[in-house]
Amino acid sequence: QQPVQSPQAVILREGEDAVINCSSSKALYSVHWYRQKHGEAPVFLMILLKGGEQKGHDKISASFNEKKQQSSLYLTASQLSYSGTYFCGTESNSGGSNYKLTFGKGTLLTVNP
Amino acid sequence: DGGITQSPKYLFRKEGQNVTLSCEQNLNHDAMYWYRQDPGQGLRLIYYSQIVNDFQKGDIAEGYSVSREKKESFPLTVTSAQKNPTAFYLCATSRDSTWGANVLTFGAGSRLTVL
User: SS3 for A96?
Assistant: First the structure.
């Protein structure tokens, strides 16, 4: 089952903040965040492991609430270069030895001057 | 430079034809994956392989086949049994596939259009 991302799309002016949410119906081991610019391949942003940690670099950070099976991506003081589609990918505690990363449908972020 | 090469970038196919998409990597990564991307659907896993000569079905494997004869190569065949093959196909690798260590590196993708 795909994790659910919200909102589906968001439009910002440069310098504004945004939050993108990702929730799952399954218990999660980890959450990944990727960004895909139009016509390009997705690029890894960060991975959060269970334990409720928060990570970040530059002005993009993320949190992971294992109990709520949710993760949020925070973009502060947005720049034009932040535009793109953001995907969360989840790794669930489904047991077994086979690994599967399941992606949400994505959130389209547009940053305007 | 290390990376993932997908070919062809664009491919047109007539209905009823099989087509094979190539994915080659020189990152020395153990795990390789094929994802399909459709507008508004995100990335859906077709097949993945953790080691040579072994692969597992993903969420939408019907109508597709793969092989992993070499560590560097993971070709995907879209067969005539795939009912709606027009899509953007992404190949990805990860250093390994253990829990929490599977950061994906993606290729540039192949866009398949069925006429």
Answer: coil
Tokens of A93: 């505690």
| Mean pLDDT confidence for A62-68 | 89
Q: Does A37 touch chain B (CB under 8 A)?
A: no
B85, two tokens: 């093959």
Cα A110 to Cα B15: distance, rounded to the nearest angstrom: 37
- Which of A99, A102, A107, A108 has the most B C-beta neighbours within 10 Å, making it the best mutation to test the interface with B? A99
| DSSP codes of every residue in A10-46 | EEEETT--EEEEEE-SS-EEEEEEEEE-TTS--EEEE
Radius of gyration over every alpha carbon of chain A, rounded to an integer in angstroms: 14
Query: Which of the two residues, B15 and A97, has the higher pLDDT score?
Result: B15
Q: DSSP label at B15?
A: T
C-alpha distance from B95 to closest chain A C-alpha (Å): 13
CB atoms within 10 A of CB A8: 10
Long-range contacts of B65-70 (CB under 8 A, 24+ apart): B66/B34, B68/B32
Chain B CB contacts of A64 below 8 Å: none
Chain B CA closest to residue A104: B42
Question: Could you list the pLDDT tens digit for every one of the 115 residues in chain B?
Answer: 669 999 999 999 998 899 999 999 999 999 999 999 998 889 999 999 989 999 999 999 999 999 999 999 999 999 988 889 999 999 999 987 666 667 899 999 999 999 8
